[in-house]
Here is the input.
Amino acid sequence: MKRRNLLKGALLSPLAFTPISGQTKSIREQYNLPDVKITKVKAIATAPNGIELVVVKVETSEPGLYGLGCATFRQRAHSVVTAVDKYLDDFCVGKSVHNIEDMWQTAYVSSYWRNGPVLNNALSGLDQALWDIKGKLANMPVYQLLGGKCRFAVDTYTHASGKTKEEVAENAKKFMEQGFRHVRIQLGGYGSTHLSETPDYKKHGFGHPADNTMDPYAYIQGTIDMFEHVRTVCGNKVELLHDVHERLQPMDVIYLMKQLESYRPFFIEDPISPENRHWMETLRQKTSVPIAMGELFNNQNEWIDQMIQRQIDFIRIHISQIGGITPAMKVARLGELFNIRTAWHGPGDVSPVGHAANAHIDLAVWNFGIQEAVRFNDKLRSVFPDAPYMDNGYMHLVEKPGLGVDIDEKEAAKYPLPKFNYNWTQLRKNDGTSIKP
Ligand code: MG
Here is the structure.
C-alpha cells in the first residue's frame, strides 16, 4: 500500500502530467504512470435477493488495486462465469490495465464469432473493471474521466403496478409523494397476463403448466383504461411511462399508441421486438408518442439505423449486454448527434456495480433522458458496499475514485446461484402459440 500511496502522490502532482516533448517515451515514462499489469480476471457470482448477479474482478500487479465490472446476464449466469474464468482470464493476464479501448477491441474479436450476450457480458465485466481501475489510478470518479457532470444527480422513474387500474393509480400516487416525477405504470405484469382466462391450450395439455398466457386485446384495452384513470387521479404533472415488452404485433401496437396519445406518455418502451425492427419506420409515422427501444439489443447493427433515421426518442440498452461503458459511451454520443436521449435498462438483474456504471454515464452525457430507479436492500448492500442510493426520486453515487462500489467476497459467497428456473419468458396465446417475451 505504501508504494501505491507514493504513486498516487506522483499522479496528483501537476508536474507528473507534463509530457516530455521530442522524445519517444513509454506511457509510464511520459506520465509517471505505474506500469500496472493484469494478474487475474475472475467472475464472482452471487444472488443475495435470489437474482443471479455476476461481477468481474480484475486484479493487478499493484498491491490492493483492483477493478469491478458488471457481467450480469441472469438467464445464462453460469455461461458468463465460464467465459470469464476459462477465456478472458488467459486473454488478459500480463496485459496493461491502461489501454481500455485496445483491450475492448481485441477481446471483442478474440472469439472470432462475437455479438452474443454471453461474451458481451463477460467483456462488459472486464471493460467496467478497467474503468474502475483507471478512476482509482487517477483518484477520480469515472464520470470525471467521461467529461465531468452535466447535472447534479440522476433523475429516475419507478414502477407502479396493480391488478386493477385503481390499484395502479394508488401506487403511482404513493411514489409521487416520495418525490418521483416519473412513474412507469403496468396493469399487472408485462402483457397483463392476469386478464387472460384459462386458455384452450392448457385444457388440451399443451405447453408447460407454468407457462403464462396473454390475451393481446385484453391487455391493449386494459392499458388504455389504466392510462385514462391514472391521468385523471394523478393529474398532468407526473410523467407516465409504460413497457409493452415487445409483446404485440406491429399493427396492434400502432393502435395502442394512437389511443394513448391524449394521455401524453413520457415514452412507450420496447413497442416491438427486435425481430420486427423494420416496422419502426411505419410505427414512427403513425404516432406522436415518444418511443424508447433497445433493452434486447446486443450489437450495433440493431441500433444504428433506428438512431440515425430518428425512429426512436430514447435508447435504453442494457449496458452489460453490449460490452460495457466503452461501447455505451459511443451509443450515447451517437444519440446526442441525432437528438436521442439515454434511458439505460436498470432492473434488478443488473448488479449494483452495473447500476453505478449507468449512473456515471448518466451524469456525464448531455443527452441523458431518464434512468430506471433501483433501491438496494440491506442484504445487497452487505455484499456491495457503497452502492448508489436514492433520494427524492434521484439516484446518487457514493463519491469515490472509480465506479465507487466495492464487493465483500465473503458475503457474496453466502448467496450461491439458485437453481435455474425461468418461466417468465414462457408466454403463449390462447391456442398455445408462443409469444416473444
Ligand atoms: Mg423493459
Notes: The first strand starts at residue 38 and ends at 46. Residues 1-20 have pLDDT under 50 and may be disordered. The pocket of magnesium ion is lined by residues 243, 245, 269-270, 295 (CB under 6 Å).
